C-alpha cells in the first residue's frame, strides 16, 4: 500500500502526527510529467452544402515522463469518446521529453443543412457536452506483458463552446481503473509526521534590514536581547530556530562569535558544573547543527572505514548472558567487542588534526567560558567539550550511522546491537566521569568496562580534547594555560648563522604548545628558540635531495626564515607536520606557495631562482581540510527566519508585554512571562520593535508579490500546467478573457 498527499495539502499536516489510510498501489496510479496539446473545433462545409463539425487534436510534446526499467520510448494515443478508434503517434526512442507535433482529426457532429450559425444548434450542444477527448501516453516495450501506461488526460469538449481553439500544457493524470470494490481501510493505516516548508525567496536587498539585525547578534549586550536569541525564545522547538540560524551565520562567517556569545551567557546561568550544556538549549542545538554541517567529512575519514567493516563482517559481540545465541561464547564476544571499542577509541583520539577549524574554535570558546565560570573544577574545561564531541557527535554517529551518511541504510538487528554497545562504551570513555562503572545500569556493561579502567584511556581523551579545543590565537583576556600538544627529540639545521656543513645539524628537544613551537638542548632546559604559532606561515615536507637526508620537513616563518627539521622516522614526520599545520591553519598570513627544496649555494634547488626571497614555486598542500565549504543560500535562510518570526508573531508581542512589565514592575514575575529570558528589558524591547517592523515590511512585500503573481499567472502555460484542481480555474480564466474581448 501507499500514502499519497497532495502538495497543496502538505502544509495542513506540517509537524504533527497524523494517521493516513493506506491506498492500493498499481502502475496505473503512479504517473508524472506533462503534455502540450492544441484543440481546435471547426465547421466544415461539404460539396453538397451541408455542414459538419470536426475536432483537430494536435499533440505537440511532453516533458518529464517517467523512465521505466531504464528506458523511455514514448508514444501517445488520442481517442474521442464514443465509437471512434484510437489514433496513435510515432514512437520516440530513448527520450522522456518527446516532441511529436502530430495532428489527428475527429468528426464531432453529423452533417446537417448549413444554416450560417457560428456554433452548434441545441441538439449539437447536448451531444458535444457529453463528449471528451482522451490522450494516453505509453512506453513502447519489447516485453511480453505489453506497453506500460505512463499517464492520461481527459478533457470535456464543452469548454470548446467558449472558444473554438485552446492550446495549453496539462499534467498527466492516473488512470481510473474503476476498481472500487476494496474498502479504504482494508490495508490499514500509517502514522506520519511530515515536516514541510515552502519559501518564496526575494532578491538579497529585500532582506538587508532583518539580515543585518540577525548578524550583529553576537555583538549585542546582553546577547539575550539579540534578534537571534529572541528567535530561539519564541520558537516552539529550539531546533526550528537553530537550523536556519546556523546556516545563515556559517554562510557569513559569524558562527563562532555567535555561539561563543550564547554559550557564555548559558554558562553564567549554570549553577552546577555537572549539568553544563546538558539541556536542549539554543546553544546546544546550534552546536549540534554546526557539527552536523561542518563535521560530515570529519566523520567520513574517522569512522566510516571501521563502521563499514562492522556492518560487513558481522562478528558476534553480544555480552548480555541472557541474549546469547546458541553456540556463542561469552568471552569470545567480549573480546570481539573490546577490539572494536579499542580501534574506534584510537581512531577518534588520534583524529584531532582532522577536526574542522570551525568546530575547534567553538570548543575553545566553550572551554574558556567553563573554566572562567567554575575555576575550582579542573575537569569542567574537558567535560564542556566532551559533552558535544563525544555525547552529541561521535556516539550518535556510531549508534545510527545511516543518519550521518556513514551507511546507506539502517543496520540489521545484530549489527545495530553491536553498534549500540560500542556507542555506550565510547560515550562513557569520553565523559571522563569519576565513577564510570556506576554509569551503567546493566551489570554486564559495568564488568565489560573494567577493560578500560586504565589511566591511559583518560589521558588519551584529555590529549584529544586539548588538541581540538586549543587555539593558536593569543588572547590576552584568556585564562588558558599553554596546552602541550607534542614533544620529542629531532634534528634541526641552524637557521643561516654558519656555513653549510654537518656540524650545523644539532639534536634538540622540540616542544609544541597551542601558543608556541620551541626547542632546547634537553627536556626542561630554557628554550634556545621560540616561534609563536601566529608566525608559522607554512609547514611542508622537504625533498630529500636538499641535504641527502630522509624524513625532513620545514617550518616557514616571516621574512623567508625557514627552520629545517629531520624527524626520527616517516610516521613521526607526518605527525609533526599534521599537528603543526593544524594549530597554525587559521593564521591570516599563511602562504599559498613554497619551495619544496632548500636554498643552497646561492640558488633554490627546486626552481633554480637565485634570490633567496623569490616566492615559492609549488602550491602549499594545506595539509588538512581547514573548513568545509557549504552550499548555503543566505537569502533563503533569512526568508526561513522571517517565516518563523511571522508564525510566532503572537509570542513576539507577548514578549514585548513582558519587557514592559519588567521595566515598570520589580516584584515577582507574572507566570505567563516567566518562560522568556529577558536580562535587559529596554534593549530587548528595542530589538523586538525592529524585528516586528522588519517582518511587517517583508509581509507586505509577500502580499504584493502574491497579488501580482495571481494577475500574471496563466494556467495552461508551461510553468503552470493544468491539473485536476486548476482545470476549473483555467475554464473560468478563459471565459473572463472571452467576455472581455467581446
TrEMBL record:
It holds the Pfam family BTK. The keyword Phosphoprotein applies. Keywords: Acetylation, GTPase activation, Metal-binding, Phosphoprotein, Repeat, Zinc, Zinc-finger. Residues 483-585 form the PH domain. Residues 31-170 form the C2 domain. GO terms for molecular function: GTPase activator activity; zinc ion binding. SMART domains: BTK (SM00107), C2 (SM00239), PH (SM00233), RasGAP (SM00323). Transmembrane segments: none annotated. Gene3D superfamilies: C2 domain (2.60.40.150), GTPase Activation - p120gap, domain 1 (1.10.506.10), Pleckstrin-homology domain (PH domain)/Phosphotyrosine-binding domain (PTB) (2.30.29.30). InterPro entries: C2_dom, C2_domain_sf, PH-like_dom_sf, PH_domain, Ras_GTPase, RASA3_PH, RasGAP_CS, RasGAP_dom. It comes from the Eukaryota. One of its GO terms (biological process) is negative regulation of Ras protein signal transduction. Residues 237-431 form the Ras-GAP domain. This is RASA3 protein. It comes from Pelecanoides urinatrix (Common diving petrel). The gene is Rasa3.
Amino acid at each position: 500500500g501507499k500514502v499519497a498527499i497532495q502538495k497543496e495539502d502538505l502544509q495542513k499536516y506540517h509537524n504533527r502526527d497524523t494517521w493516513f489510510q493506506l491506498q492500493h498501489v498499481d502502475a496505473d496510479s503512479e504517473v508524472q510529467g506533462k503534455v502540450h496539446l492544441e484543440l481546435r473545433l471547426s465547421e466544415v462545409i461539404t460539396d453538397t452544402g451541408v455542414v459538419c463539425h470536426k475536432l483537430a487534436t494536435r499533440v505537440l510534446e511532453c516533458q518529464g515522463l517517467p523512465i521505466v526499467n531504464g528506458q523511455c520510448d514514448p508514444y501517445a494515443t488520442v481517442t474521442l469518446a464514443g465509437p471512434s478508434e484510437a489514433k496513435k503517434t510515432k514512437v520516440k526512442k530513448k527520450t522522456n521529453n518527446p516532441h511529436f507535433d502530430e495532428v489527428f482529426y475527429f468528426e464531432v457532429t453529423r452533417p446537417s443543412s448549413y444554416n450560417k450559425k457560428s456554433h452548434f444548434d441545441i441538439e449539437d450542444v447536448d451531444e458535444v457536452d457529453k463528449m471528451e477527448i482522451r490522450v494516453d501516453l505509453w512506453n513502447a516495450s519489447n516485453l511480453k506483458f505489453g506497453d506500460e501506461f505512463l499517464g492520461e488526460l481527459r478533457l470535456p469538449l464543452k469548454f470548446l463552446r467558449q472558444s473554438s481553439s485552446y492550446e495549453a500544457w496539462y499534467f498527466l493524470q492516473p488512470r481510473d481503473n474503476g476498481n472500487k470494490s476494496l474498502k479504504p481501510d482494508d490495508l490499514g493505516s500509517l502514522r506520519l509526521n511530515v515536516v514541510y516548508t515552502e519559501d518564496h525567496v526575494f532578491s538579497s536587498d529585500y532582506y538587508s534590514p532583518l539580515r543585518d539585525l540577525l548578524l550583529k547578534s553576537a555583538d549585542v549586550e546582553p546577547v539575550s536581547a539579540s534578534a537571534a536569541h529572541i528567535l530561539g525564545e519564541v520558537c516552539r522547538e529550539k531546533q526550528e530556530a537553530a537550523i536556519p540560524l546556523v546556516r545563515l551565520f556559517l554562510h557569513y562567517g559569524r558562527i563562532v562569535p555567535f555561539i561563543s556569545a550564547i554559550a557564555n551567557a548559558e554558562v553564567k546561568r549554570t549553577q552546577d558544573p555537572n549539568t553544563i550544556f546538558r539541556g536542549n538549549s539554543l546553544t546546544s542545538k546550534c552546536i549540534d547543527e554546526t557539527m552536523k554541517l561542518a563535521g560530515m567529512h570529519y566523520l567520513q575519514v574517522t569512522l566510516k572505514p571501521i563502521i563499514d567493516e562492522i556492518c560487513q563482517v558481522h562478528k558476534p559481540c553480544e555480552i548480555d548472558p541472557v541474549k546469547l545465541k546458541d553456540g556463542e561464547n561469552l568471552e569470545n564476544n567480549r573480546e570481539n567487542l573490546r577490539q572494536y571499542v579499542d580501534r574506534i577509541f584510537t581512531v577518534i583520539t588520534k583524529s584531532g588534526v582532522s577536526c574542522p577549524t570551525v568546530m575547534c574554535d567553538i570548543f575553545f570558546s566553550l572551554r574558556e567560558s567553563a573554566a572562567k565560570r567554575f575555576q575550582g573544577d579542573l575537569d569542567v574545561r574537558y567535560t564542556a567539550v566532551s559533552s558535544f564531541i563525544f555525547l552529541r557527535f561521535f556516539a550518535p554517529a556510531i549508534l545510527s550511522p545511516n543518519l550521518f551518511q556513514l551507511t546507506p541504510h539502517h543496520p540489521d538487528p545484530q549489527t545495530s546491537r553491536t553498534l549500540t554497545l560500542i556507542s555506550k562504551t565510547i560515550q562513557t570513555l569520553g565523559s571522563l566521569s569519576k565513577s564510570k562503572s556506576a554509569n551503567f545500569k546493566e551489570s554486564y556493561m559495568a564488568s565489560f568496562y573494567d577493560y578500560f579502567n586504565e589511566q591511559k584511556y583518560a589521558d588519551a581523551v584529555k590529549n584529544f580534547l586539548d588538541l581540538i579545543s586549543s587555539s593558536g590565537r593569543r588572547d590576552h583576556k584568556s585564562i588558558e594555560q599553554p596546552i602541550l600538544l607534542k614533544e620529542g627529540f629531532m634534528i634541526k639545521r641552524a637557521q643561516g648563522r654558519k656555513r653549510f656543513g654537518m656540524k650545523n645539524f644539532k639534536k634538540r628537544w622540540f616542544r609544541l604548545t597551542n601558543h608556541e613551537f620551541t626547542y632546547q638542548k634537553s627536556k626542561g632546559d630554557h628554550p634556545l628558540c621560540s616561534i609563536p604559532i601566529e608566525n608559522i606561515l607554512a609547514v611542508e615536507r622537504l625533498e630529500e635531495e636538499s641535504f641527502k637526508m630522509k624524513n625532513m620537513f620545514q617550518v616557514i616563518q616571516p621574512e623567508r626564515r625557514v627552520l629545517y627539521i629531520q624527524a626520527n622516522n616517516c610516521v613521526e614526520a607526518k605527525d609533526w607536520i599534521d599537528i603543526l599545520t593544524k594549530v597554525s591553519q587559521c593564521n591570516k598570513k599563511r602562504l599559498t606557495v613554497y619551495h619544496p627544496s632548500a636554498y643552497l649555494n646561492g640558488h633554490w634547488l627546486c626552481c633554480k631562482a637565485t634570490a633567496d626571497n623569490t616566492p615559492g614555486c609549488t602550491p602549499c598542500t594545506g595539509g588538512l581540510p581547514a573548513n568545509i565549504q557549504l552550499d548555503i543560500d543566505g537569502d533563503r535562510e533569512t526568508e526561513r527566519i522571517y517565516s518563523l518570526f511571522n508564525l510566532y508573531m503572537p509570542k513576539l508581542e507577548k514578549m514585548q508585554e513582558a519587557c514592559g512589565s519588567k521595566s515598570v514592575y520589580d516584584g515577582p514575575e507574572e507566570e505567563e512571562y516567566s518562560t522568556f529570558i529577558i536580562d535587559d528589558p529596554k534593549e530587548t524591547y528595542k530589538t523586538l520593535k525592529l524585528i516586528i517592523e522588519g517582518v511587517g515590511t517583508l509581509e507586505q512585500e509577500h502580499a504584493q508579490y502574491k497579488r501580482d503573481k495571481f494577475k500574471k499567472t496563466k494556467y495552461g502555460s508551461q510553468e503552470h500546467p493544468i491539473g485536476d484542481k486548476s482545470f476549473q480555474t483555467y475554464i473560468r480564466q478563459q471565459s473572463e478573457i472571452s467576455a472581455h474581448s467581446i
